[in-house]
Design brief:
2 strands, mainly alpha, about 500 residues, 13 helices
Length: about 500
Amino acid sequence: MGPAEHDALAVREQLFHERVRECIICALLFASLYILCHFVLTHFKKHADFAEAHDDEDAAVNRIALGLCTFTLAVSLGAVLLLPFSIISNEVLLSFPHNYYIQWLNGSLVHGLWNLVFLFSNLSLVFLMPFAYFFTESEGFAGSKKGIMARVYETSVVVLLLTLLVLGMVWVASAIMDNDAASRESLYALWEYYLPYLYSCISLFGVLLLLLCTPFGLSTMFTVMGKLLVKPRLLEDLDEQLSCTRFEEASMSRRISSGKAFCWLNLSVEPLRERLLAIQSKRRALELRRRASPWQRNLGYPLAMLGLLALTGMSVLVVCFHVLELLLDDAAMPRGIQDASLGQVSFSVLGSFGAALQVVLIFYLMLSSVVGFYSSPLFTRLLPQRQDTPLTKIIGNCVSLLVLSSALPVFSRTLGITRFDLLGDFGRFNWLGNFYIVFLYNTVFAALAALCLVKKVTWAVQAELIGALGLHKLPLPVLRARPLGEPA
């Protein structure tokens, strides 16, 4: 064997070992996410749906559907971690460019993860989740032998028909929006055109859902933080308020007991009970605030609210700056690349600190979008309950979280939260190149987030000051109506 052949063989062996190493790393990462998601779903699932004493066949079907839901939730979590993992990998390679132990962290691995997340997201949305739902509702074709395989056949036929219907609708939509005659006459580009087009529509819907849920979630997080933490009060006497509340509770209890003892008293007991419950709730809240330590009362709440305020204000500033960049530079538009060149330049002007800040903002926006999603009136019923969530609701939650999480990389890049360009098929979405859509999206998000800051911060501070100074107890001036003909 000559030197040239020996070098070519060494290169092929190196490529083979790198490919095997990337497959092992991806498998380990996904297995870890799958195990974590399995414990999460087990915490929320309804055990009666999986008890074999109820029905062996139904229990087996539900376990299979739960496995598909676990796979989908693992893909959702992988989509959330995709962009932060890429940003952190780039900074690690910049900090340790010649370290032997991190050579596995390269552009090929990151690009492969992006492609796998895109592939599994399509697979879960188009096939697995519809299969899981119809599988739990199926009973087998009429006249066929009962069993799990009969359900599998029926579900496969229904999913196949649904897939053909969806692909037909996508083909019609693309033919209407595209003037190319070839796109109307053939479906040969199913994998290269129509599936990315379908996922582009789903991603656009997910990004719009993130746009609506994130500001609503920011507002909800300020409210929830105020309920969970002990808020400091200015110029108030907790002992006096607690004493008055206890006297009022005792008086209300005596009125209720007297109404029960003397049947001739014309008292409505039910409103009194509701009033008593409200007083007891107020008394417990006052006792909780009284037992709180000065550090918890005077430091915990301000720090938490300042953290939320800082993250929200920083997000608004970043988006406003990105709006100016869109007006001045075309390079600010979100775009896709096919080669992940990691370890060459930082994606933030602040270096590693800016990259860490980008990761924190991405997680913060995802958390606020999930909170806003479950707090909105349309999706409140999807909120899972501990040990009491039916399987159909678990499927709905997995689909919703997958739509939100798979749109997170596009959402973050569109708002300018990060400069890390979209890899693989994530950058092939048609609407990413439309300046008006991207500009309007950034403007609407900045306006809604700024409105949330104004509503939850300035109005809340005003209400606290009015309550602390006792101005809310002052009588309002009564304006006397001037009769007709009376001079002003």
